[in-house]
Amino acid sequence: MAAHATHRHLPAGRDPGPQSRQRRGNLRFAIWTALAFGIVAGAAAVGFFTGVIEGEDTQAGGITAAIVCVLSLLAAGLASRYAGRARRSGRLALTVQPGELARGGEVRARVRVPDGAAAGPVEVGLVCMEFCDQAQGNGKGGTQRVTGDHVFWETWHRFDEAGPILEARFDVPPAKPFSYEGSCVSYAWRLSAREARGGGRRDPQTDEPIWVLP
Amino acid sequence: MSIEIVADPGPYYPGDSVAGSVRVAAGSDFRSLKVELVYRERTKDYADAGRVADVATLEEAGDFELVVPADALPNVAGNRGRLTWEVAVKADKRGPDDHAELELDVRRGAP
Hints:
The complex is a heterodimer.
Chain A: H1 3-6, H2 18-50, H3 58-83, E1 93-97, E2 100-102, E3 106-112, E4 122-137, E5 143-159, E6 165-171, E7 180-181, E8 185-195, E9 205-213
Parallel strand pairs in A: 2-9
Antiparallel strand pairs in A: 1-3, 3-6, 4-5, 4-8, 7-8, 8-9
Helix pairs in contact in A: 2-3
Chain B: E1 3-7, E2 17-24, E3 32-43, E4 47-58, E5 63-67, E6 76-77, E7 81-92, E8 98-104
């Protein structure tokens, strides 16, 4: 499978670095672990309620197992959502030119708004993400290495009255990071188009990664 | 044992030479000094060598010269992470090795 299909922060033709591969592996492990817990707890709940599993209070056991099942499946769903950064995929069609450029260069975004897709304003942005490994408490007195991510820099154009085609141009700041896939630090750039409904991260958004050269 | 790296911190550009010297405290006992030009990734908690571009080995404290590669990426300062070029010295001795680093300012393109 192409790298950009599993690592959505990367454009086609760019391979993930050690940090991205590790991060992806950790998320997959979390998803499968939570799913396994959920399935086992679900089976236990069925067992309690149907009397296959006998005990002093099978009803309490069944309720507990059912709650564990629901929480585990919720955790798996949240981890899966995080894995793909699957913000609600927008209906806005976003194309970017060029897909690779040097810092200081200009990138153009073209957004096609299908009929009725944008009930409100549309925002088109250029975003730089920073991924950094950090030590996080593991609950046993030790630490574990996790990768945190945050928006390092962003700029947005707002279109209050969205027509069928929107165009925006952005200059990549020469002093900001270039795209980099490392072992404990990475930087990724993308263009985004979102329907600004006031829902913050819940607003439908379409992303298109680009590669910024030094 | 204390190690001191003496070099101009820059700015440097791809292809430049980095000349400097390594000083160690008198009476220090080491087998050799390894001097590396490293592109280092750093966060608050971790550091990894993204690339070792040049290496010099010294049998005693003294001068070194390393070359910034032609395709050197520039330094980057993020919010929680950094990418920086460093001269890193490792003193090979009995027991734990001693280390010292000096950060360099490496930029893209000619001045």
